[in-house]
Amino acid sequence: MENPKGGREFRRTNTMKRIAFLLFAVVAVAGVVVHMAHASGHAEGEAAPIFGIKIPPGYRDWKLISVAHEEGDLNDIRAILGNDTAIRAYREEKLPFPDGTIIARIAWSYVPSEENNKVFGRPQSFVPGPAPDWYLQLMVKDSKKYAATGGWGFAQFNKEGKPTDEAKLKTCFPCHEPVKARDFVFTRYTP
Question: Taking Cα atoms as reference points, which of 100, 177, 107, 182 lies closest to residue 143?
Fold first, then answer.
């Protein structure tokens, strides 16, 4: 016959183990969420001068708009990403882009891959190398807030999440003015 006290003790111990496990799981999930927010874009960082833009949390998980290779002094490869608003506008071929659109450019140096070239038997493979000085650029659409710059705010950040200076940001809009017909955006969507 079962001891009534022993049965209750077993259930109490089992319940305490479950509570401890759930508490541990909640703490672990919270830690992962905090780590991901930090690792995915320095969300708590400084705002860029002039436009006041911060790095959006989770931007590294946005969808790919296109890729690019810039030669000359830049010599980098880039991934151009967009938030959901940007992707929807690109897919619907909607111009001007709606307010709330954010386009991010992530850049890496463009370096030959000696390892891959050995396999191919000739120099033909290039891969992302170290991040350049200004690793991340952002364009944020707010037609009222940024009316003086075609409705776009601009920001640049280094790989540590520090924003560039005001002088550098003043060069952004003049560079984008030649593509006014495409709402000041160079990148075309590559489905």
Answer: 100
Sign of CA dihedral 174, 81, 59, 78: negative
Amino acid at 175: C
Tokens of 34: 């905090």
Q: Tell me the three state secondary structure of residue 45.
A: coil
For the chain, give every domain's residue range: 1-39, 59-182
Ranges of residues in the chain with a pLDDT under 70 are: 1-44
Q: Which of 186, 104, 102 is nearest to 141 (CA)?
A: 102
Provide the 8-state DSSP code for 143: T
Element (H, E) at 9: helix 4-39
Q: Which two tokens stand for residue 175?
A: 């560079």
The H-or-E segment that residue 81 falls in is strand 76-82
Q: 59-182: which CATH topology?
A: Chalcone isomerase (3.50.70)
Residue 163: how many CB atoms within 10 A of its CB? 24
Return the sign of the alpha-carbon dihedral for residues 46, 53, 83, 172.
Answer: negative
Q: What does the pLDDT look like over 92-102, one tens digit per residue? A: 999 999 999 99
| 152 neighbors 140 (Cβ within 8 angstroms) | yes
- b/e map 168-177, b = 16+ CB within 10 Å: bbeebbeebe
The pLDDT assigned to 54 comes to 97
